[in-house]
TrEMBL record:
Protein name per the record: MarR family winged helix-turn-helix transcriptional regulator
Domain HTH marR-type per the UniProt entry, residue ranges: 15-145
Pfam family, one: MarR
Keyword terms, alphabetized: DNA-binding, Transcription, Transcription regulation
Length: 150
């Protein structure tokens, strides 16, 4: 089956519907993420930062890039998470001028609990077969490749 290209000035109905569906998925995800964060007495931004740090230590500037916010905002978020014992600052072993934010053991536990409490991420996807989830993952990665996200 050949795919048909549309001109940039005209968006076909299927593309419009896909865009609306993606918007609905994103809105539902953010809503549930905020609720899950609140259950852990975190803001959404704190939860996102903690989730990032549970994967790897990151410099403050890189965190700001990933969260798409100002470095000063990241400093405030890290301060609050640090006061709760969820994050700590360490010098970067490759460049002592750079500070890394690192999730503590407790921070990794909270991040794991947060991920596990996201029903939206589990329930609808559970209705898809493994092959369908693999196809969906591939399509989403392909959509994001141009943005350097994947």
């Amino acid at each position: 089956m050949a795919t048909q290209k549309t001109s940039p000035s005209r968006i076909d109905p299927v593309t419009l519907e896909v865009v609306e569906l993606i918007g609905t998925v994103v809105a539902r995800y953010h809503e549930e993420y905020e609720e899950a964060a609140a259950e852990h007495a975190l803001t959404g931004a704190q939860a996102r930062l903690l989730s990032l740090l549970s994967l790897e230590p990151l410099p403050m500037r890189r965190l700001a890039q990933k969260l798409k916010c100002e470095p000063s905002n990241v400093t405030g978020i890290v301060d609050r998470l640090e006061s709760r014992g969820l994050v700590e600052r360490r010098p970067d072993p490759t460049d002592r001028r750079v500070k890394l934010a690192v999730a503590t053991e407790e921070g990794r536990k909270v991040a794991k609990s947060l991920r596990e409490s996201l029903r939206f991420a589990r329930e609808p996807l559970a209705g898809l077969g493994e092959e369908e989830r693999v196809v969906l993952r591939g399509l989403l990665r392909r959509m994001l490749e141009g943005d350097g996200v994947v």
